[in-house]
Amino acid sequence: TNELPPYQPLQHPLSAAGRDRLRQLSQPTKFGVHHQLLAEVISCLSEAAAETNEALSSKETDLARSKARNQDDPTTSQQRVEEMEAQFEELQAKVDSITAQMDKDVRKMIDADNNIEDMQHTLAELVRDVSNASTQRTQRTQREDSEEYPDFDPTDPTNATQRPLAVAHLFNDRVARAKDRYNTQSLTNRYSKNNHYIGFKKITHDARYHNDDVPPPHLWFKEDRPDAGETALGTEDSDDDLQIAKETISTRCPLTLREFEDPVTSRKCPHSFEREAITSMIQMPNNHVRSEGAAAVQCPVPGCQKLLTLADIHSDPMIKRKIARLQKANRDAEEDSDEE
Asked: How far is the CA of 38 from the CAs of 32, 41, 143, 147, 319, in angstroms?
């Protein structure tokens, strides 16, 4: 029979053209598109989770109002309130299930993003290894050419000719080992310090409960929670000691003094501004202030010394949601006042 021999992977050093191609593949710009795409997917999932939980919160508020009216007005049907309670419990179960699934999907995107980052680091390491190996081969060849009869001891294992492994084999092996190391970490270690996941937890909690009191990270995952009487690894403070710094949120821009329409928030301080106003301020032709080489202005809020560049301002979904909620509450209060 003409049976083929077992497959053996290529084992030949890369040519100069191959090394150049590998160097091109390792460029950060090759991976930036994928990181950005995953960030957009996570942003969409976070916004969808927030909208879903905001709807549940509104239903809960409506239910509370109906109960209050039922107490004040005996003519209000108790049966109707009970029906609303049953509907709310059904909706709550659905929202909890959907939110849990979105939570898993966000973590899958974070896992994929981490895997891409491992690939990026592995390629960078391979570029260095291949370049070093090429230099060593050149030096070894030069030494051998300069010696007419180089010394050779067949019993010396260092004289054995070792065929280099294929770059593809090295790449797959290193990426697989990095993935194994990642998967052995607890869920808390994987996600509690990831900005995407922190943002997801915050915006979902805010939409549901309308406050900043997000549970501490060591309580996010049931399998990582400490048993009764134990302290979670790496957490020295009790829940009572964990306090979140809160900033009073205004619905008006401190520059225009008008209601926000397109608010952006500083990454360096907890202050928000109308996008067009702060952008125009930073880009003023006579502005000669610089921060890390870019045009900057001191935060316009009195008492804040932070220098802000265009890179320091961003659209914060949770802040925008809070501002919109406050604006709606103000409008509702004005309408109630007018009716009275």
From this structure: 10, 5, 50, 57, 22
Residues 142 and 268 in one domain: no
Q: What single-letter DSSP state applies at residue 149?
A: S
Which among 300, 296, 297 is positioned nearest to 272, based on CA atoms? 300
Predicted model pTM: 0.66
Total of domains in the chain: 2
Give CA separation, 148 vs 14, 64, 144, in Å.
Answer: 28, 96, 8
Residue 212 in any domain: the answer is no
What pLDDT, on a 0 to 100 scale, did the predictor assign at position 242? 31
- Region of poorest pLDDT, from 22-26, 46-50, 177-181, 204-208: 22-26
* pLDDT, tens digit, 9 for 90 and up, residues 125-157: 888 887 776 555 555 555 555 555 455 444 444
Cα(3)–Cα(114) distance, integer angstroms: 42
Measure the CA–CA gap between 236 and 241, rounded to whole angstroms.
10
Which residue range(s) make up the domain with 327? 263-339
pLDDT digits (tens, 9 = 90+) for 245-275: 334 578 899 999 999 999 999 989 989 999 9
Same domain, 124 and 22: yes
Q: How many angstroms separate the CA atoms of 195 and 267, rounded?
A: 13
Nearest CA to 308 among 335, 280, 328, 337?
A: 280
d(CA 20, CA 155): 37
Q: Which residues pair with 312 in a beta bridge?
A: none
